Amino acid sequence: MEERARNVRTLRGVGPKRAALFAKLGVHTVRDLLYTFPRGYEDFTHPVPIAQAAPGEVCCIRAVVSAPAQVSRARGGMLLCKVRAADDSGVLEVVFFNNKYAAELLKEGETYFLYGRVGGTPFKKTMTAPECLPAGQEPGLRPVYAATAGLSSRMVGAAVREALALFATRTLPEPLPDAVRAEYRLCHADYALQNIHFPRDGQALATARRRLVFGELLALLLGMGLLRHRQADGQAPRCMPEFDFAPFYASLPYAPTGAQRRAVAEAAADMARAVPMNRLIEGDVGSGKTTVAAALCVLAHAGGLQSALMAPTEILAAQHAQNLERLLASSGLRVGLLTGGLSAAQKREAKAAIADGSVGLVVGTHALLQEDVAFRRLGLVITDEQHRFGVAQRAALAAKGGAGAGASAAPHMLIMSATPIPRTLSLMVYGDLDVSVLDELPAGRQPIKTYLVGGGLRARVRRFLRAQMEQGRQAYVVCPLVEADESGLAAAVQLRDELAAADFAELPVGLLHGRMPAREKEQVMRAFAAGDLKLLVSTTVIEVGVDVPNATVMVVENAERFGLSQLHQLRGRVGRGAAQSHCILISDAEDAATRERLQVLCKTADGFAIAEQDLRLRGPGDFFGKRQHGLPALAIADLMGDLDVLRQARRAADALLGEDPGLSQKEHAGLREAVDALFADSGIVFN
Fold this sequence. Notes:
The protein starts with 15 loop residues before the first helix and ends in an 8-residue tail after the last helix. Helix 7 crosses helix 22 (669-679), helix 18 runs antiparallel to helix 20 (607-618) and helix 19 (592-603) runs antiparallel to helix 20 (607-618). The strands form four sheets. The protein has a seven-stranded parallel beta sheet, with helices on both faces. The model is unreliable at 403-408 and 619-629 (pLDDT under 50). The protein is globular. It has 687 residues and is an alpha/beta fold. The protein is built from 22 helices and 22 strands. Helix 13 (391-398) links the parallel strand 14 and strand 15 (412-417).
């Protein structure tokens, strides 16, 4: 058996029980373990004098134990151990709780490295339960791993050492071709894995990380390229190349923008070819993506094809169905709805209409993916808010094109997203998609007035909310937390109770957060959309939500805790009706850079400009958050912080696929394995 495929329980020190704990971390094989990277490092290489260690700072101190340990029982029977340590600059009190071995850990007269968070005051500093190592050990950088109950970071590290020891007399397999490593000056995988886990020094760590980031991003981009290649090989139904959209445009209650017409033309040109379209429509909230989708449904219908639109929630699907029915009223295209919330009889009726082709466009949720949903001739698949759907789910819906009488092998695919992505990233990230951008808003939209205020004006903000609601309007208040904790940040549960009991006691105030059951969340949003709730206190779960034209105010508590693009998405929940809308950002942040960042929202409504500014101001960090926009989860790379490496990986991927479009050559077997491993959890299988 190849060493990397061995089960972790074959490693020394890892029995069945510990292997079960590793499984909770997604670690089953030696390869899984080697690619479980540290989440950080304890840096013992730069100890600071006690006098320079500031309370609240995590640091390493080199000090001598200057007095015997003092052990006592605190209130409640808790074991308390205090040790006095000192260097030439000052004294540090080291404290341990309920550690019966602590008194033996630090011996009087010996010198130790102490790593932890400094507490106390500038005049009496403490460190609670630090990592303690004898000064003679020269510990360097020590990895810190994600842990779970019963499996500590130190245990994970010990298992990683055992895994690396398997390759003490041989090198780990290297998936990158020598020519690629030479061109981009990358170290060998063996060196990278050794030094990402147990780095010799900071430079070795940087070298190792760059190699692993490059490899992961290359696998991502190659996988997206293989998807594009596979789609290009598929056969799709060809739609009329010179279709006249003028009657559809004339039937609309507004004049389409130039950006909408351009996006329709780009997509229609794709759909006129026998190769499946795979196009992303990016546009701000309110830019008219649904109108573009409706136009393309008309084109598909004219060619005898059905269309399907998948939305992330039942209420959003129902809203899409209602809007599209209105937009398509003059086209003779019947719109159907299929969601999990329908009755059994309604589902049977909807599925029968889809199967016999009497429904030209079906709007639904994940219910569209069920095995018994069969289309007569599916030619166009549309997904809304694409980061809610992974590539596997998109592929599953596209596969419906292969079923039914006269069906095509692969329908055209249109993906809609209101999440602005910096232009510097989109072409590199969406390697399997062509991109159209809606960068104009329909005429007549009033810009949302945006303000940044301090917490001292909170009472005034609430008076303004009341005035709006007395005029029949509705409003949102968004909090960073679900429930209160020691951070002092606004929490939705407590704030809703406070507002319902005091400021808005006689008005219906709703609560919405991600921990609520899906059905309950749907009920709350339906009540708000219907006007039964006047004020909705929520977390960012409303970032992608239902269209409520009557909502005119968005208040965001602790606005500094959110990224600009996220704040812009939240702001997009209002401004959907004819009345003037307002967005109020509440923040007591005093940092100049933070204030500058938030002021960007007050100065511009261009989501793409805001995304670029977010990229510039926030620097390294996960711009995409945990969602990764439907992409496979990345273990070490950061799409934003590693932008330079992403550009290099893009060039390398293009060159490799240009030479070997299917990665079928023998020298690319390692790359193909890396691609398969990265996309495995996405449900994508490359043939």
